[in-house]
Amino acid sequence: MTIDLNCDLGEGFGAWEMGNDAAMIDLATSVNIACGFHAGDATHVKAHGALSNVACEDDMTARAIAAAIKAVDRNLVFVVLANSKLVAAGDAAGLPIAHEVFADRAYEDDGSLVSRRKPGAVLHDPAQIAERVVRMVQDGAVVSVSGKVIKMRTDTVCIHGDTRGAVEIARGVRHALKDNGIDVAPFKTASS
Fold first, then answer.
1. pLDDT in tens for each of the 192 residues of the chain?
2. Which domain holds residue 92?
C-alpha cells in the first residue's frame, strides 16, 4: 500500500510568516505552493481555501475549475477533496484525479470539512492525527465528528503547513504510516 503526503506551503507573505516550509518540504512527497493564489505546482493543480470550499459544494464552480485545468493541460493531476463535487467535475472533464483527505481537519457527517469557525475543526495532537491517518488509509474512510464512518478513496493526505505543530504532525504521520507497512510516495506513483 502506498500513500502520498501533500502539504500546502508558501502561504506566508512578507512579514507574515506561516509555518516552517523548509522542514515541511522534507517530510511531504507533494507540495501545493501558494504563489499568491493558492494553486498547485507543475506536477498538479489543487483548488485551495475558500475557492475549494465553494467548489466542493457547487457544481458550476467545480466544473469551471476542471475546465480551466483541461484547457491548460489535460494531463495535470486534479487534486480533489474526496467525495466532493470536484470529483465528478474532474471525471467529466477526463482529468487524472488524486482523491485527498485531510490529516489535521475534522469532518462533518456529510463528508465535508468542519468549518474553521467551529471549535475542533483543526486537529493538533500529533499522536492522535498519526493514528487517524493510518486508519484513513487502511480503511479507505474517515470518521466524522459524530463518529459516522464515511467511505472515501484516499490517494493523498494533506497536512497543512501552517497548522500549529505541523512539522511534528508530519513526522508522526510518516513514522506511523511506515510502522504500519504503508509506503509514502508522490501520488503519481501511488496505487489507485
1. 899 988 877 766 555 666 788 888 889 988 876 654 444 445 788 888 888 999 999 999 999 999 999 999 999 999 999 999 999 999 999 999 999 999 999 999 999 999 999 999 999 999 999 999 999 999 999 999 999 999 999 999 999 888 889 999 999 999 999 999 999 988 764 444
2. 2-184
C-alpha 10/C-alpha 19 separation (Å) is 9
What's the CATH code of the domain at 149? Answer: 3.20.20.370
In this structure, what C-alpha cell is assigned to residue 116?
474553521
Q: Does residue 189 lie within any of the structural domains? A: no
Per the structure, how many domains does the chain have? 1
Let me know if residue 124 belongs to a domain: yes
Angle between helices 166-179 and 126-139 (to 10 degrees): 40
3-state SS class at 131: helix
Nearest CA to 141 out of 153, 130, 125, 129 is that of 153
For residue 132, what are the contacts with CB-CB under 8 A and spacing of at least 6? 103, 123, 143
Assessment of whether the complete model's pTM goes beyond 0.85: no
141 found inside a domain: yes
Q: Tell me the longest C-alpha to C-alpha distance in the chain.
A: 42
